[in-house]
Specification:
alpha/beta, globular
């Protein structure tokens, strides 16, 4: 009988990782990705790796401090992700697991799955009962200028992507429609096109805008209203000619269950950092299958390729490279598909790059 590795130490490092292209959203621009890199050292000399995306550099230091305190709750215990997930969920039951706590618990869960899989010298997807297989991906853009960014859009299609997402909602309804029309003309009629409103609209305005955009053959419209407004999403969905996508801001499977009960979406997009890591994702897949919801990922391309490969309603992987600048071998799509790598999630840090992009 194989003995599980034991957690020896937890190390976290904050970095600002340059992105291949700045991400412009209706809420502001993200020129570089504020990440916390997580290393779980085990007694078998295996290191489990993961990272979390902090959205703003302002939370890097407090999150690192929380991780350092969290170490005392896990050092000396087995690398058993489900057990650690249950223990820590109970520990923070009164405080709640949203926000920084939820990010840390989810990131730790991913690192533990990576460590467990590396100890077995296998990719995570195999420990989950599946095999590494190509998952359809879409290239994820922010706000675009159809003229200035035309070459980037064409390069995406040339690289093999058969689906593209752009962000809208910062401008007027007419300007958004013109942008979507121009992007559709650039990518052609056979490439799927998704749009993300990034929670920017009221219910009434969202309905108006979606009606105007429906002519451009959209695969989905994402987060048309505030993420927590499940009733608002349901109202938009009830009259929308375009499928409604949401889920990146669900905290743990309980949030997803509430959204399903509210009939808030046609499609689901959990985020590994908010849904509870791999452990939370597996529970979310059961909800998606029961509700017949196609399941896509949000960010975290390295781990998402493993999670989606065992998801019964797998739909799309979002290709948005947040960590490639600090990885020895960034994930590259092949013919618009991303395949899980191993062992673990297949991530090795580029220590030289980490030193260059470290945050003091």
């Amino acid at each position: 009988m194989t003995t599980l590795p034991t957690i020896r130490s937890l190390r976290v490092r904050p970095v600002l990782a340059p992105m291949p292209r700045p991400l412009r959203t209706a809420s502001g621009a993200i020129p570089a990705a504020p990440l916390i890199l997580i290393d779980v050292q085990t007694d078998q000399d295996v290191i489990g790796r993961a990272y979390i995306f902090c959205y703003t550099p302002m939370v890097l230091k407090p999150l690192c401090a929380f991780f350092n305190d969290l170490a005392g709750l896990i050092v000396g215990k087995p690398v058993a992700p489900t057990d650690r997930f249950q223990d820590l969920s109970w520990t923070f039951r009164l405080l709640g697991r949203q926000g920084l706590v939820g990010m840390a618990l989810s990131g730790l869960d991913m690192a533990l799955w990576d460590a467990l899989s590396r100890a077995a010298d296998r990719p995570v997807v195999e420990l989950l009962g599946g095999t590494a297989k190509p998952v359809p991906a879409y290239d994820s853009f922010g706000l675009v200028d159809p003229v200035a960014d035309r070459a980037m859009l064409e390069a995406s299609i040339g690289a093999g992507f058969r689906a593209i997402k752009i962000k809208i909602g910062e401008r007027s309804s007419a300007e958004d429609a013109a942008m979507v029309c121009a992007v559709r003309d650039t990518i052609g009629a056979t490439v799927r096109l998704m749009v993300d409103l990034n929670q920017s609209q009221s219910v009434t305005e969202a309905i108006h805008r979606i009606d105007r955009l429906a002519a451009y053959d959209l695969t989905w419209v994402e987060e048309p209203v505030a993420a927590e407004d499940l009733e608002g999403h349901a109202r938009v969905r009830s009259v929308s000619p375009v499928p409604v996508q949401t889920g990146e801001n669900w905290w743990f499977p309980a949030d997803m269950a509430r959204a399903v009960a509210a009939r808030a979406c046609d499609l689901a997009m959990p985020d590994l950092m908010k849904i509870g890591g791999i452990t939370g994702w597996l529970r979310a897949t059961a909800l998606a299958e029961a509700a017949s919801l196609p399941l896509s990922s949000h960010l975290f391309i390295e781990a998402s390729a493993h999670a989606l490969a065992v998801s019964p309603t797998c739909h799309f992987l979002e290709y948005l490279d947040m960590a490639g600048a600090v990885l020895a071998e960034p994930v590259r799509p092949v013919d618009g598909m991303v395949t899980a790598r191993g062992p673990g999630f297949g991530m090795e840090w580029d220590e030289g790059a980490i030193a260059r992009f470290a945050v003091d």
